[in-house]
Amino acid sequence: MLNDDEPCVRMSEKRTYDLMERTARFGEAVIAFARKIPKDAVTLPLIRQLVRAGTSVGANNCEANDAVSRKDFRHKISICKKEASETKYWFQMIATAVPELKQEARDLWQEANELHLIFGKSFQTAGKEKQA
Q: What is the CATH number of domain 41-126?
């Protein structure tokens, strides 16, 4: 869990925890950020979409870790990658809708981008044939 004195924007500075912990912290940071967004007719749908996509990254990573086959693992990892990509989009839309949160959205966008790249590489690696 995020500590009150540990801002979520500093998340990218910490790389010592594993991917399960990292995606959980990312989901928590998305929730904390969403709570800061002023609610109106424009932002409410953006908030819903951001929270759904941002928390789905970690949930699908959990499913990937419990995969029953390589094919199943690759499928779940591909969903993680897609959700991270979608999360980046929603951060961009929120930065446009609420300019005062642009920097924090940008910092979280960067974490979503790094997760997108990690899951993309994991998907590629899992698709390679085992070397005998």
A: 1.20.1440.60
| Per-residue exposure over 28-48, b if at least 16 CB sit within 10 Å of its own CB, e if not | bbbeebbeebeeeeebeebbe
The domain spans of the chain are 41-126
Question: What is the pTM for the complete model shown?
Answer: 0.83
Residue 35 falls in which region: left (phi positive, over 0), alpha (psi -120 to 50) or beta: alpha
Which one, of 121, 126, 119, 42, lies nearest residue 87 by Cα?
119
Least confident of 46-60, 67-81, 118-132: 118-132
Check: CB of residue 88 under 8 Å from CB of residue 49.
no
Cβ contacts of 130 within 8 Å, gap of 6 or more: none
